[in-house]
């Protein structure tokens, strides 16, 4: 059954789903949604997803949104070894859930708070937004100390989510070079099959948007 992904390549949660699908070997039928022209507010889209957000998946009429939930579903259904990315062991799963919630509640909002004025109002973020992001990057860098991936030494669903969020900073060329654990983890992520391609598509779309 083909899975259609409604997405926008500039969106962090969309890239999280794309990275997950790529890693589990699932081919998605991609449909790009132009958020800037309000395509997600059209009646057809709202009929499918009243929350009017991407990513949204449609699997022969089975519709869902919320990237973290989508990734759990796709991994459960399509990965031959679903325990690899989302182990059943309670402590391991708890660590992954912790990082997914950390992204949802703290990390991603700090990035969006910093990026939104730059992308949508073409103005600098205020001092509070700058400080919130710097604090989160420092915290995340500490959380990565001694780990290969965000929830331990194994790749997990949380890496795609945090990877999607972190990738946003590339769009505006935010300098993260002083966060050595983040840099090392990001390099590890980009080296995974298919991930660099998603990153490059994001950068190309960002360049096109900035020159328009
Ligand atoms: N918590 C959601 C966030 C989805 C979200 O906010 N998507 C943005 C793009 S990054 C969007 O579609 N915004 C348009 C809207 O909500 O109207 C997820 O992880 O999927």
From TrEMBL:
Record Pfam families: GST_C, GST_N
Family annotation (PANTHER family): GLUTATHIONE S TRANSFERASE D10, ISOFORM A-RELATED
Matches recorded under InterPro entries: Glutathione-S-Trfase_C-like, Glutathione-S-Trfase_C_sf, Glutathione_S-Trfase, Glutathione_S-Trfase_N, GST_C, Thioredoxin-like_sf
Organism this protein belongs to: Branchiostoma floridae
Protein name as catalogued: Glutathione S-transferase 1-like
Domain GST C-terminal: 89-206
Family per similarity comment: Belongs to the GST superfamily.
Residues annotated as domain GST N-terminal: 1-82
GO BP terms in the entry: glutathione metabolic process
GO MF entries: glutathione transferase activity
Segments crossing the lipid bilayer: none
Gene3D superfamilies: 1.20.1050.10, Glutaredoxin (3.40.30.10)
Quaternary organization: Homodimer.
